[in-house]
Each structure stands twice: as C-alpha cells, then as structure tokens.
Amino acid sequence: MRSRRVKPEKVAQEYVKAQKDRTGFYVKDVPPKGRGVFADTKFFKGDFLLQYCGKLCSWETGDKLEGEQSSGFRFFFKFKGQGFCIDATEEPVTGPSFGRLVNHGEKEEVNIKLSVIDVEGNPSLCLFALCDINQDEELLYDYGVDNLPWKKKVCVVA
Question: Got a GO cellular component term for this one (predicted)?
Fold first, then answer.
C-alpha cells in the first residue's frame, strides 16, 4: 500500500504556525550576492521549503519605507484583494530566518517559487520546490526585479 504524502501547503502552514524554519538547510556566502541558502539534504518537486518572514504591513506603509530607505528585503504582494508588504529588512533574533536569505536566480537557474498561502486568515509567503533539489544546491527564485546591484554593468575607463 502506498503511503499518503501530506500536502506541501499543509506542511507550510504547520511551520508558519510553529514559527520555525524547516531543517535541511545551511547558509554560506555567495559573492557578489551576499549570503545564500543551500539544501543540506535532497528535496523533491513541490516540497515546502521555507517561509519568507518579516513584519507584515500595508502596501502603502511598505512603499513609504522603501521611499525613505531602499531595502532588498521588502516583498510586495496581493492577498484577498488587498496589497501587503513583508518587510524582512531586520535580521530576526528568533524564529524563521533562512527564507529572507534566498538569492535571486535567472530564469534558467530558478529552482523554487514563492507563493502566498492562507494561514488562519493571514497571508504568509512560502517557498516551494519547482523541481528536485539536490544536497548542496543553492535555492534560487526570480525576484521579479531587473535593477539588482550585482547585475549592474561596471564601466571601466582606461
């Protein structure tokens, strides 16, 4: 008899409610991007991986904060017809922290997707595997932004 697999969204909801990162990941430096998240074990297509945590605020508040000081850690999204922002600018002292360190990948590199899920009526940003992910493989998703600092071409004048 084949065992039933728990749906990835249900697994995500449990980790969000517990306010902890799933095991099986480590962080290391990835120049010039900064820190990145890597799989410490194999994960399969569709698996819940991590959550993107930070302070939940309105789209307007997030936009105002971004105008005052730009941050690569603010994620804007829609949930039930309303605009929200997760501001993960501050490094968390406790709770889930790996999701905010996942780096951008180009289309051919992307191996995870970010989805908004409903956890007891509240939005949560969760990362899921788009394909099988091997041990020591970096997690990468498309930020949907073109003007990333490490993508800028540098002109050298001789």
Answer: polytene chromosome
What pLDDT sits at residue 101? 95
Q: Copy the structure tokens of residue 84.
A: 């929200």
Ranges of residues in the chain whose predicted pLDDT is under 70: 1-4, 145-158
Predicted confidence at residue 154, as pLDDT, reads 44
pLDDT, residue 158, reads 55
Q: What is the pTM of this model?
A: 0.86
Nearest CA among 132, 131, 101, 121 for reference residue 30: 101
Residues listed for the chain: 158
Give the Cα separation of 96 and 21 in Å (integer).
5
The Cα 48–Cα 127 span in angstroms is 6
Phi-psi region of 144 (alpha: psi -120 to 50; beta: other; left: phi over 0): left
Nearest to 17 by CA among 106, 118, 100: 118
Q: Smallest Cα–Cα separation from 86: which of 77, 95, 98?
A: 77
Among 110, 97, 123, residue whose Cα is nearest residue 45: 110
Q: What is the pLDDT of residue 6?
A: 87
